[in-house]
Amino acid sequence: MQKRHNVTAERIPAVGQVVSTTMIVNMLVAIMLFASSFHAAAAEKAIHIAAFGDSLTSGYGVRPADAFPVQLQKHLKAQGHNVTVSNGGVAGDTTAAGLARIDWTIGDDVDAVIVELGANDALRGIDPKVTRENLQKILSALAGRNLPVLLTGMRSPANWGETYSDDFDAIFPELAKEHSLLFYPFFLDGVILDVKLNQKDGMHPNAKGVAEIVRRITPSVEELIGKVKAQRAAEKS
What we know:
It is a single chain. Helix 3 packs across helix 9 and helix 4 (95-105) runs parallel beside helix 6. The chain is 58% helix and 11% strand. A five-stranded parallel β-sheet has the order 2-1-3-4-5, sandwiched between helices. The chain is built from nine helices and five strands. It is of the alpha/beta class and 237 residues long. The protein has helices at residues 2-43, 55-58, 68-78, 95-105, 119-124, 128-144, 162-169, 171-178, 207-236; strands spanning 47-53, 83-89, 112-116, 149-152, 182-184.
């Protein structure tokens, strides 16, 4: 009986060593898995796109859930993109008002910007030279922060005359070329003048109209996402 007791006692340290080794291995595996998950999460960090504009961006006259940034984010996610689209639209903003607030509207966490401004300049008959100068400063500020930009074009109403319309409409493609930007020629393409897609004022899209804008602009926004991904890849290399 004594001999059997001694054998059991001799085995206890060996069992303890096995338990300790197993615990250490498990801890190391857990740490590795955590580190792997952390790096994967960092690699898959959502791309933050700021939609920077006026009432066409902010969602004037429609439910918050139907505003352009919200519908765009939902649509992009349905396409498999890990994105967040923030609403940087303020109803009534001219390019001058946009310029005045760009520093505090476009936060440090923004990865790319959609610039939609100019409609209110045209409605007020503001000198196209002023509009161009304001947009030039906005785009230069974003370039200084190395932010990819999708510039959307706007068109002047016909009531100011052909010369004004020509000068105003030319601002957007010319600035896009000058700054080598992604360019969507007309934000209201396929929606303007369609009574089924606009509110009663004839100027602001309804929920269906916003959805149509989102559908049409998505390929350009996907190019913008591609630029952000390319930047991130370059920063890692």
